[in-house]
Amino acid sequence: MRIVITIGGSILLKEYDNKKFEAYADVIRELYNEHEIFIVVGGGRPARDYISVVRDMGETESICDEIGIQVTRINARLLQLALKDIAFPAIPVNFQQALEYSATNKIVVMGGTEPAHSTDAVGSILAEFVGADLVINATSVDGLYDKDPNKYDDAVMFDEVTADNLMEIVSGNETKAGTYEFIDKTAIEIIKRSGIKTVILNGNNPENVKKAINEPIGTLITTD
Ligand code: UTP
User: Fold this and answer.
1) Is the CB of 203 within 6 Å of ligand 1?
2) Of 222, 14, 189, 195, whose CA–CA distance to 117 is shortest?
3) Which end of the chain, N or C, is surrounded by fewer C-beta atoms within 10 Å?
């Protein structure tokens, strides 16, 4: 299977040490034997911190996004280092480059591309561009809930949600640099048009990514 895995920066950098990078590298190494893997890494807290510094300088949202993108590329580089020789040793800055690098049969690891969306969208566009069978979005939540599970004990997680319903749910969210919440709208649009199976799951345990290939876990975004 050709699989795109997007990993939130907040997952990899939760503790600011090498452990999550190495743990992800171990899981991805296992998947690499059977699957063709592309990885997109998010910015996490350092992206938000830098963005807020630049925003205070009075810079535009696009410049803030550009700074966020640079941070995602640093995080991508760290995961690439943890993967050692099974990862292609450069970070693609666009989708064409990602496709070219993948012709080496190495794992391609990238961060952001252009302003005005998050790495969720990068994952969905990359999946469409390379003809992926599955997108696994590793985030810091278990999936999509009917209400905030941190506030409500009776919150229920959806096993499945249609892309249309998801769009309605996130339509009130902000689209400013560093503030994309559950999933960004561009990503949902791409999921709708490509029809590529997309699973959102809790990435704090990297084993969940492996599970998503063979069994239901998290929330599946459906398009029909
Ligand atoms: P993330 O994809 O990590 O954003 O990119 P996020 O969802 O806010 O953060 P997580 O999920 O907590 O890790 C960080 C920031 O970089 C910019 C955006 O400003 C985004 O918020 N970015 C990233 C882009 O503008 N374009 C991209 O392609 C990627």
Assistant:
1) no
2) 189
3) C
Distance 66 CA to ligand 1 centre (A): 9
**Structure tokens that stand for 98 in this block:** 């990602």
Instruction: Give CA–CA dist 87/29, Å, rounded.
Output: 10
Residues in the chain: 224
Tens of pLDDT, residues 128-170: 999 999 999 999 989 998 888 888 899 899 999 999 999 988 8
Atom index in ligand 1 nearest the CA of residue 113 equals: 28
Amino acid in the structure at residue 167: M
The model's pLDDT over 80-126, given as tens digits with 9 standing for 90+, comes to 999 999 999 999 999 999 999 999 999 999 999 999 999 999 999 99
Per-residue pLDDT tens digits for 43-80: 999 999 999 999 999 999 999 999 999 999 999 999 99
Mention every residue, 6+ apart, whose C-beta is less than 8 A from residue 159. 143, 216, 219, 220
Beta-strand ranges (E) seen in the chain are 2-7, 36-41, 108-110, 134-139, 160-162, 197-202, 219-222
Residue nearest to atom 9 of ligand 1 (CA): 44
> What secondary structure letter does DSSP report for 174?
-
Task: Give the alpha-carbon dihedral of 4, 10, 72, 147, to 10 degrees.
Answer: 70
Give me the residue label for tokens 């998290």: 218
Ligand 1 centroid to 154 CA: how many Å? 30
